[in-house]
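Q: Structure tokens for this one, please.
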Amino acid sequence: MAGRTNHRDYWQGFEDYLAGSSYQFPKMKARDGEFTSKTVLGPHWFLVALRNTKRDGSDAECRFIRCGIIIHEKAGPGSAKRRFDRLREFKGEIDKKFGRRLDWDREDERKQAQIVIWDEVDPEDKTDWPRQFQWLAERLEKFFRIFPTYIDEVEAQVVD
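A: Here is the predicted structure, written as tokens:
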């Protein structure tokens, strides 16, 4: 494993990687936390990228990057779950367009839900960052291109 890095270094590297790129998804700013995100199509829907360098509770390293859509509960209790449940009706179609099965997690114990994709990598390994940044950018672009039509459909039908 390479030397420890902080979250800001990683996200600054990602921001620099995206500078001048042709990706269409909203660019995310470097920050100090383990994730960076951007609101897409209304206050409930976030395009998110995350790096995890924590232990998983068993003293084993749990390292990965992930990205996807997180649906936040902004319109009262259950609003994220109603949106997720409606969106999940399109799961097969969305997974097919994405080219693989996504991880659909309703997260019943939390006030959010998520549709994400993971890559088991070491976000501390700076030598691998260019590949990790490319992986994140390509998948964020897919989320950004595929989901808006479905989000529009969900928003047209969900009543808060």
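A few notes: The longest helix spans residues 129-157. Strands lie at 35-39, 45-55, 61-72, 103-105, 112-119.
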